[in-house]
Write a structure and sequence with these properties.
This protein has 198 residues and is an all-alpha fold. The protein contains 10 helices and no strands. The longest helix is centred in the C-terminal third of the chain and has 21 residues. The model has no long low-confidence stretch (mean pLDDT 92).
């Protein structure tokens, strides 16, 4: 049995993310990936059973990285405003630091692989529990108006992700150059808090 080579494995992950972000699942193949990594297709099968296994394992790694980054220095016991701002900071920092991984994670999230990946990560259920506790505390402390989860999510995080998309593209509406600053983020956050608080 051949020994796993960590550098080679990292190269495979990096190239797989590049290809899926650039070409989507339709344009992605094990042959193309092996060629991009200058390895044989047989070598890929040392690390992964098949294409689905590869996508799910890499997706799991990226999801874990994202969830860990999102809860950094965050506690569900923070006041609602403080906790939501920490979430905004963490999500913005992660997206700016790892734009390609975030683009990959977005593709995965809206794919048939999403459920399998998220179900395989124990930390995802921990993350969901932490976020539920945070929202429950906000409701209990009357810092948050009751609403459906989908409405809450779109108001609480939608403005941030719109700004991050502008930042990643380097332009806002009508092609106007755009760079996300703390001031602009804070301005959007204040409007978000106003919409969510009783």
């Amino acid at each position: 049995m051949r020994i796993r080579d960590t550098d080679k494995e990292n190269l495979v992950i990096e190239n797989a993310i590049d290809q899926i972000v650039r070409d989507g699942f339709q344009g992605f193949s094990m042959n193309k990936l092996a060629k991009a990594c200058s390895i044989s297709v047989a070598t890929l099968y040392i690390y992964y059973k098949d294409k689905d296994d590869l996508i799910q394992k890499i997706g799991g790694k990226m999801a874990l990285k994202f969830f860990s980054g999102t809860v950094k220095d965050f506690s569900p016991d923070m006041s609602f405003e403080e906790g939501l701002w920490k979430q905004w900071e963490n999500r913005a920092n992660f997206t700016m630091k790892y734009p390609k991984e975030v683009a990959f994670f977005e593709i995965i999230k809206h794919s048939p692989h999403a459920e399998t990946i998220l179900d395989s990560i124990k930390e995802f259920s921990d993350f969901r529990a932490i976020m539920k506790q945070f929202i429950d505390n906000g409701l209990k402390n009357k810092e948050l108006i009751p609403m459906t989860f989908e409405a809450f999510w779109s108001i609480a995080y939608g403005p941030l992700y719109t700004l991050l998309n502008f930042h990643t593209e380097g332009k806002s509406m009508g092609g106007k150059p755009f760079v996300l600053t703390k001031e602009i983020m804070r301005e959007a956050f204040q409007a978000t808090i106003k919409a969510l608080k009783p």
